[in-house]
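Predict the holo structure. Ligand: flavin-adenine dinucleotide.
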Amino acid sequence: MYPTLRTDVERATWIDKTVTDLAAFGERHRQELDTANRANRFPREVYAELGRLGYLGPLVPTEYGGLGGGVAEYTVISEEVGRHGLVSGQIAAQGQRWLLDWGTGEQKERWLRGIATGEAVFSECISEKNAGSSFKTMKSSAVRDGDDWLLTGSKTHINLGADCDVTLFYAMAEEGLTSFLVDMTLPGISTHVTRAIGLRLIRTADVEFDGVRVPDSARLGEAGEGLATFLSTFNISRLGNASELIGLGRRALELGLRYAAERQVGDSMVTDFQGIQWMVADAWTALQAASLARDDAALAHERGADIALHTTTAKRLAISAAEQASDASYSLVGGHGLYWDTPYTDIANDIKVLKVAGGSAEIMRNYIARRILSDTGHQGLA
Ligand SMILES: Cc1cc2nc3c(=O)[nH]c(=O)nc-3n(C[C@H](O)[C@H](O)[C@H](O)COP(=O)(O)OP(=O)(O)OC[C@H]3O[C@@H](n4cnc5c(N)ncnc54)[C@H](O)[C@@H]3O)c2cc1C
């Protein structure tokens, strides 16, 4: 695993340790995680333990309690989180990127350490009932009132919306889209837990802001810079999505193979059938291609290159690879996999959610097409 990310001995050793640690963590908490997932409950204690072990703060410097790593470390953690069905730290990683890139000294002091260590839970309040893939129809408003702002709006699909301590709230101000770091204990905020089909360990909620008063120091970036703050974490989110999808796909395949190797059908084992073997070979190939594209994006980031096309390509490939692996797992297992509360179904549902959340498969394809057309002067690829 991670053949191209093992760029030096120190990193290779860290990767091996992380893979082993997170597998053991998954074993230790399997029952608790499965129960929480099926009950649509955020296991805050397990999340905090991941934070204490250093796995929630990959991008944060050590002086703020983080790992002091880069996107390569982040992708390894994300893939293993997907592979062992752990609580995702992806939203925390986005929060870290936002604070590191845009936060004032005061904002970093207040939130960065907590988010990196799992003591403070972060969420992002962007989507609304009528504003998902496009912000143009966003209705939430931010209105100045003396030195403060009044924030009003209804957000939906918010992972950890009802479980977080701080959220990044996007709203339209007179100057345009603007983001605010909001302490969730402030008056005027209410939440309602919702039941998505997947990623239930970081369950979703509707979040209502009704004239929430925040000081100007809660603003992240300048008023009107909301699109820029949003775009600054888009690579992190796509790489995290891609890595979790690859991890989920690997797990689906591993579990299906483990079952099929012991399942007798007539005189054969399921894994003796060539049709099944080819399905496994194709899913493995797709996962390998997605991993290489993902690693390529992480390494390009370390070279300081523009990685938007790399991360988008990686997510696009990872969606198809994970779906292919999940389909193969159902073929390996047959009817016994096709029930609620089986790992195969939990994984398939997580994959469905990651296909849409954080930028849908269609939006990935639009972006790739736009870049190919503009980079080649609309001539197509020679
Ligand atoms: C479980 C879950 C968790 C989520 N977590 C969060 C969160 O924590 N915070 C947050 O703010 N949001 C979150 N989201 C919202 C998510 O980002 C949006 O669902 C996503 O951006 C798509 O928006 P939409 O659902 O409104 O679909 P729409 O924008 O209404 O799109 C509907 C369909 O049309 C397709 N489509 C849209 N535009 C185009 C186009 N130009 N070309 C081709 N096809 C297009 C879309 O791909 C989709 O299939 C989450 C969503 C889910 C389901």
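Residues 124-127, 132-133, 157-159, 196, 199, 204, 353, 356-358, 360, 362-363, 366 surround flavin-adenine dinucleotide (CB under 6 Å). The first strand starts at residue 122 and ends at 125.
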